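Hello again, I could really use a second opinion on something today. For a while now I've been wondering how a particular protein folds. Please have a think about how the structure follows from the sequence. Here's the protein in full, and shout if anything looks odd to you:

***
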Amino acid sequence: MAVKIRLTRIGEKKVPLYRIVVADASTPRDGRAIDTIGHYNPNTDPGTVDIDVEAAKKWLGNGAQPTTVVKKLFKQAGIK
């Protein structure tokens, strides 16, 4: 079972908001998530990123692979 840290879209039409979730790689984008570790709002200038650093480090330590966009968000938040 491959576990990914990725974005799930929430919000309204043309007003995207995203949750940063830990999910099985085979589930759909907006499907069932194992854990929610943060939020991302690209509508503000600059985009607002709110991540639970402890949970993110725990999942990365357990072998979860972040997507490229989530890697950039982690870098913004100062998570290695």
Residues 15 and 43 are 7 Å apart (CA to CA).
